[in-house]
Write a structure and sequence with these properties.
Strand content: 15-25%
Distance between the termini: 57 Å
Helix content: 25-40%
Oligomer: single chain
Number of helices: 9
Number of strands: 15
Structural class: alpha/beta
CATH class of the largest domain: Alpha Beta
CATH architecture of the largest domain: 3-Layer(aba) Sandwich
Radius of gyration: 24 Å
Largest sheet: 5 strands, mixed
Amino acid sequence: MWAFTKVVSHGSFSEAARDMRLSRSAVSKYIIDLEAELGVQLLNRSTHHASPTDAGQHYYERCVAILSEIEEADLAVSHLQAEPRGTLRVNAPMSFGTMHLGTAVSDFMLQYPGIRIQLVLSDQHLDTVQEGFDVTLRIADAPPPSLTARQIAPAPRVLCASPDYLKRAGTPRHPHDLRGHDCLNYGYLATGTQWKLTGRDGEDHWIHPTWKLSTNNGEILRDAALGGHGIALLPTFIVGEHLRSGSLRAILPRYKAPETSIYALYPPARYLPVKLRAFVDFLSDRFFRKTEWNVAHR
């Protein structure tokens, strides 16, 4: 597996052999034996180049995660874990990743230069264990019971629209008024195509919004709301600055969407790897008291 990942990363048997301080024929034999054992071709070969097949690319991604865990075990046994190091595979939501996590990861790498980050952004609920991630950041009202979860930060959501839209279409006073408005819908809501709003009296209101735009990306919904195309239900970490500036206005402040938080999810383990503990602690310290997200309603 180690020889295979080296060939894929270098794109060459010769370069992989040089890196591993082995002969080219030894590396080639390792790959041939591996393909024979798996019963599948892993590499496309030419005279000077090697590239993974579709099966090989999938196998490579899993091998990288497995070899990272082996590296972690070796470091632990050799007492080198005082300084976190190794590869950390992270999955995170798209908008949170591009708007906030990118700079956080950059600062984290400055603080922990021995850790390499492989970051995959996706709003789909990927299987943390099956996909080989060390940690998944997910925005939810409750974490899945099958994984260990730590709350990184609250992620309140607010109904909002531009002043131009509200001037043109009117400001809703009750959740049922939303049925007469253009709405901008996030495609991966836990409640499906419905919006759930709870009044201060505890009464729940379920609304089927008449959406003008439905997408799986919060920043696109924010831009549509800024353009006056309708009402959006979005986390304040996406629209907070626009609520403060007044380019978006919060509506129906007496009614709240279900509370959600940003969670760090990782497989249950007796011993939490030091690199993972350092990353989760760093994110919690950075984001938990992010008060500018919790803006006052305008």
